[in-house]
Write a structure and sequence with these properties.
Helix 1 crosses helix 3, helix 2 packs across helix 3 and helix 5 packs across helix 13. Helix 11 links the parallel strand 6 and strand 7. The strands form three sheets. The chain has a seven-stranded mixed β-sheet, sandwiched between helices. The protein is of the alpha/beta class. It is globular, with a radius of gyration of 25 Å.
Length: 445
């Protein structure tokens, strides 16, 4: 193949796959010659051919840019699919102005803080978190908190510390469960004792009691508030029973409270950490869901496992990005996040109510819907029906996406007839046709 044709194919592939989007500038002709070792005439001929095919357009004094509609990019195809399967909250629901202003204000202090090497996290942010926890009934000292690269790192640190040097590590996990936790455990060869929680709140702890008595279970991983993927909270009776077992066998609890700030009705139930007086709970949280998506700022209060968590943190990611911590600390200090957070929770509650109502009107009683109390997920399950994993490809062909239920069970062994919807993207007024199709296929036998 000639150099000219190779260049054309090179850029067509990049544009088709979305590496270049409409309006993006292509490398200059001089840069193209240097990078690919071609002459100016070859470079010009390649760009002219791309222009002839409709992929690029020449801009006066601005070189070549990707043309509007220039190629059916993969990214453009994704944009046409309803993102109900996304694990991330809809960014359109956030008003980021207060956070952006806080970020701008604190940058003047950035050079000063660089010299302090606060490896476990910005002291100002840790103090703000301690005050917030005290206001919510948790007695946490600021120096017992470690800032992490998002909630996922907090969870990873907790899991690794609890299972370190165990010959056959095993954690009890309430299911359906956060796929990130299940993937993390599988990656580290950690066995799972699944404890199914029904949509009615039923939780059988007998298998956990047996596993603890036999010494086979080394910790309990739980989302007590606004569980992913159901949005439910554990009942007080279930919390008490779980706590009694942890006390009796002196095992750690890894508590993931990622959605705490997204309670539909304030205040959110107290976390298990609030009753911890001996440092048993490794409490994990994040700002990614409620305040600063993309900033990747989370935190962990690991109780008596603090030293082990600090050693592991420093030996892996060393420290978390400082500017993002500074902005969040500034926002927490002046209370500027509260109005936006209240609006966000109200919007999520409204979307949850409308989506449940529209689905309930279309689905038979055999399809059970969760009733979220917070967060941004809705869970659908039934005892029979189509396999949601198989159904996904068909759904995408009809312009919608969801998360199949097998993702939320260890090894994909359960949840074949269940699925999760991201209700933060639900705007049923414009999505009724998609809801009609989904209801029809879920009841198909």
């Amino acid at each position: 193949m000639s150099k000219y044709a190779t260049l054309v194919d090179f850029f067509v592939a990049a544009i088709e796959h979305g590496s270049y989007r409409p309006g993006d500038a292509l490398p200059s002709l001089r840069s193209l010659c240097q990078t690919h070792g071609v002459g100016m005439n070859t470079a010009k001929r390649a760009y002219y051919e791309l222009e002839r095919q409709g992929y690029v357009e020449a801009q006066p004094r601005a070189g070549f840019r990707v043309a509007a509609g220039g190629g059916a990019t993969a990214a453009a195809k994704v944009d046409t699919v309803l993102p109900w399967g996304s694990p991330f909250i809809n960014p359109a629901l956030f008003d980021g102005r207060a956070l952006a202003q806080a970020f701008g204000r604190v940058q003047r202090r950035y050079p000063e803080l660089l010299a302090r090497h606060e490896l476990l996290g910005l002291d100002a942010l840790r103090r703000q978190l301690a005050r917030q926890c005290h206001a919510e009934g948790m007695a946490l000292d600021w120096d017992q908190i470690v800032i992490t690269c998002g909630g996922m790192e907090a969870l990873a640190l907790a899991v690794q510390v609890v299972t370190h040097e165990r010959p056959a590590p095993c954690l009890a996990v309430l299911t359906p469960a956060f796929p990130g936790l299940l993937g993390l455990m599988a990656q580290h060869g950690i066995a799972t004792l699944a404890l199914p929680v029904g949509l009615d709140g039923a939780l059988d702890l007998a298998p956990l009691a047996q596993g603890l008595a036999a010494g086979r279970v080394h910790g309990i991983a739980v989302m007590a508030n606004f569980q992913h993927p159901t949005g439910h909270c554990l009942s007080e009776a279930a919390r008490a029973a779980l706590w009694q077992l942890a006390e009796r066998y002196d095992v750690p609890i890894i508590e993931d409270d990622a959605y705490r700030q997204l309670a539909f009705e304030a205040p959110a139930p107290a976390p298990l950490k609030a009753r911890d007086t001996v440092g048993r709970v490794l409490y994990c949280a994040t700002f990614s869901k409620s305040l600063a998506p993309g900033y990747r700022v989370g935190w962990i209060a690991p109780g008596r496992y603090l030293d082990a968590v600090c050693r592991l943190k420093v030996s892996t990611t060393l420290a978390s990005p400082l500017p993002n911590q500074m902005a969040i600390a500034e926002l927490l200090a002046d209370g500027g996040y509260q109005p936006g957070l209240r609006r966000l929770c109200q919007q999520l509650a409204e979307r949850a109510a409308v989506l449940r109502r529209e689905l309930a009107a279309r689905l038979p009683a055999s399809v059970r819907l969760s009733q979220p109390q917070g967060g941004y997920f809705l869970w659908l399950e039934q005892d029979d029906g189509p396999d949601s994993q198989t159904l996904l490809a068909e759904a995408q062909a009809h312009g919608l996406h969801f998360a199949p239920g097998a993702l939320f069970h260890p090894g994909g062994a359960g949840g074949r007839h269940s699925l999760r919807l991201n209700l933060s993207y639900a705007e049923p007024a414009g999505q009724l046709a998609a809801l009609d199709w989904l209801a029809a296929v879920l009841t198909r036998r």
